[in-house]
Design brief:
heterodimer, A: 272 residues, alpha/beta, 9 helices, 18% strand, globular, B: 409 residues, eight-stranded parallel β-barrel, two-stranded antiparallel sheet, 41% helix
Chain lengths: 272, 409
């Protein structure tokens, strides 16, 4: 895995992106938890050159202050893809990245050969509300993200420090660590809030019909953030889309079952 | 020194087991607990108490805005203020205030404040709060990321709508208006004084000093934290050469009685109701992403809702509240001594006194107002008179100014 930077919109954005593997390119858009390159990415890059940009506000990508809403974000991404000079390639997005992927595939359907949406956000169904990720406490968030609640990743999410209820002394090492953690989380979550507050419906349902590339939907059976019921809504809006529900997995399905999800994607992409 | 009676208009009748049974007094407080017949009583008692405070000699009477909660029943404080303006003369009507980022278009606030200023004869203080996270981000669905930016734009628009001589157009990020032409216009010139209730956010200190708005720190977490926050404000103010105590205000819970034991017996349960039920907020609602700025987080300052979001922690007792300085209570002399210290140490020219809190019933509230207003307030009013350059430029032009003896000057 290699890290690169690219300037977009005449320097308004300095975007970090990760690349792994060789072969035909594949564009991968990360979710709310950011981009933590792991087994899933390694597996996917065995047969592809995986290009994974970090959305401004996440990791080392700058310029989030230049983006106000989904409209701005989509144009930013179109400029980024132009800057990276990528087209005629498959597009994979997870969670919030799945929402962006669906938007991009609707705006420039000719750009993408195939589309994989993993537990995408972007729709709203009052009968199955998306979890309020902005107010939920860490322990409940961990349960919504992970099927295996005792996993290291789930425990880490559940153990987020609760700075709100205690005085924090910036002059101590411990206090500074808590503050640093909160600064990083405030940056990424306030980026997400721009596009998802107070509910994640920003009009995607009005545009989904434009997606023409063959589409695969992947859902964790136990997804507590975006329940599998949304798969039916996406299928209804995307005639011909296929759905695979992965057992023993929640919202972080590609992290919990990396081999299964990578195999599903490889098989789907090899059809085209 | 100016002394003002502040009222939250709380729901006084929550069940005893509220804290055990429900996760939050704010945002998702169960609606079946709301009894309109009781609210009818509470609203009218609240209005009576505020008008009574004015009659007893307070300089100002204050109301504020909250949404979807049992902590304060005034989504529209302007409705209360309209009634207060009609029932009083001389006293400042302090609306503390309207969350200007929540109104589309924000000139709705400019219009209603102009109405109140005209009705009251220029006695209005226009409060411009950002609003708590629970009120704004959750109650009104405002995006916490853009809330402060939207607030700044709304403030500019409102002040321009009050002050510009010609019709103008406004091309903002959040509001576009082809014709801005306010009718009615405020009585006070150039406009009513602007007070900004704050919480320890660094940006609010800088902005109030820069713009010359009054900064009021409203919290219940006691004198120690109050001192920390006001020191932060004064550090910023001194850098800009500002030292006038009338630039700042502070809120304090106060109860007065004949003896310490009587005060504990009379007020103790209602103070505990306030701290254990009214501030019982689900922690997830206290700090949405973007609500606190990065600079404020880096400074290690807490969310606005300092005292909120402690669900699950131990209940607070009357003794602890006294010890921590959350409440100033005692005989008139004891309260006087303590408040003199608070005023001097925080260097404030406006003290907002919460004489009704939690479940405190109407009759006891009237006693507390009368004792505070007649036994304590007159003996505090002289503070700062010895420094002639300390001029209160934040007092409404139509409101009475009293001399040290309490006589309208």
């Amino acid at each position: 895995m290699r890290s690169y930077r690219v300037s977009v919109q005449r320097g308004a954005f300095d975007v970090e992106y990760l690349e792994g593997g060789d072969g035909p390119p594949l564009l991968l858009l990360h979710g709310l938890a950011g981009l933590d390159w792991g087994r899933f990415h390694d597996r996917l890059s065995a047969g592809h050159r995986v290009v994974a940009p970090l959305t401004p506000g996440f990791g080392g990508s700058t310029g989030t202050e230049n983006l106000a809403d989904v409209h701005d974000l989509i144009y930013f991404y179109l400029d980024l893809l132009d800057a990276l000079d990528v087209s005629g390639l498959p597009l994979v997005g997870h969670s919030f990245g799945g929402m962006i992927a669906a938007e991009l595939a609707a705006v420039q359907p000719e750009r993408f050969t195939r589309v994989v949406l993993i537990a995408p956000l972007g729709l709203w169904d009052a009968a199955h509300p998306v979890l309020d990720i902005f107010s939920v406490l860490p322990a409940e968030l961990a349960e919504a993200m992970y099927f295996e609640r005792e996993s290291e990743a789930a425990r880490a999410v559940a153990a987020v420090p609760q700075v709100r209820t205690a005085e924090v002394d910036p002059s101590t090492e411990e206090g500074q660590a808590v503050i640093d953690f909160y600064v990083e989380r405030a940056k990424s979550m306030s980026t997400a809030a721009k596009y998802l507050w107070p509910i994640p419906n920003k009009g995607l349902h009005k545009r989904l019909h434009r997606v023409s590339a063959p589409t695969l939907l992947i859902w964790g059976e136990n997804d507590g953030i975006c329940p599998p019921a949304y798969a039916d809504d996406f299928k209804a809006a995307l005639p011909g889309a296929r759905l695979t529900v992965v057992p023993e997995a929640a919202h972080m399905v590609q992290e919990e079952q990396p081999d299964d999800v990578a195999d599903l994607i490889d098989a789907f992409l090899s059809e085209g | 020194m100016k002394l003002e009676m502040f009222h939250l208009a709380p729901y006084r009748g929550l069940p005893a087991d509220f804290r055990e049974k429900h996760r939050s007094v704010w945002v998702d407080v169960p609606r079946h607990l709301f009894d309109p017949a009781k609210a009818h009583e509470y609203y009218n008692q609240t209005l009576y108490e505020l008008v009574y405070a004015a009659e007893m000699g307070y300089d100002g009477i204050c109301v504020n805005e909250h949404h979807q909660n049992a902590y304060g029943l005034m989504p529209s404080p302007n409705i209360m203020a309209a009634s207060m303006a009609r029932q009083t003369t001389g006293v400042a009507i302090i609306v503390m205030g309207n969350s200007i980022a929540l109104y589309d278009p924000p000139i709705r606030v400019a219009e209603e404040f102009a109405m109140l200023d005209c009705i009251s004869g220029g006695r209005l203080v226009a409060g411009f709060p950002v609003g708590s996270a629970m009120d704004t981000a959750y109650g009104y669905g405002a995006n916490p990321v853009t809330l402060r930016d939207k607030y700044a734009e709304a403030e500019e628009l409102i002040i321009r709508s009050w002050t510009e001589d010609e019709i103008f157009s406004f091309d903002g990020k959040y509001t576009q208006l082809r014709y801005v032409n306010l009718w009615p216009r405020p009585m006070q010139k150039p406009h009513p004084p602007i007070w900004v209730p704050g919480s320890g956010s660094i940006e609010t200190w800088q902005q109030t000093v820069e713009k010359g708005h009054l900064y009021a720190y409203l919290s219940y977490s006691g004198f120690r934290r109050g001192k920390m926050v006001m020191d932060g404000f004064w550090k910023v103010a001194h850098t800009a050469g500002v030292d006038n105590p009338y630039h700042a205000g502070f809120l304090q819970l106060v109860c007065v009685g004949e003896s310490e034991q009587q005060v504990a017996d009379l007020y103790g349960p209602h103070a505990e109701y306030f701290f254990n039920k009214m501030l019982h907020v689900y922690p997830g609602f206290a700090d949405p992403p973007g609500y606190r700025t990065i600079d404020t987080i880096k400074a290690g300052l807490l969310a606005q809702t300092t005292s909120f979001g402690r669900a699950g922690s131990e209940e607070t007792t009357w003794e602890q509240l006294l010890e921590q300085g959350n409440i100033v209570a005692g005989t008139p002399d004891q309260v006087l001594e303590r408040l003199e210290h608070v005023i001097q140490d925080l260097h404030i020219g406006h003290l907002m006194i919460l004489n009704q809190f939690g479940s405190m019933p109407h009759d006891l509230t009237l006693d507390n107002i009368r004792l505070t207003a007649t036994e304590v307030v007159p003996r505090l009013r002289h503070i700062w008179n010895d420094v002639p350059e300390y001029e209160d430029r934040w007092w409404p032009q139509g409101a009475v100014v009293r001399d040290a003896e309490g006589v309208p000057a």
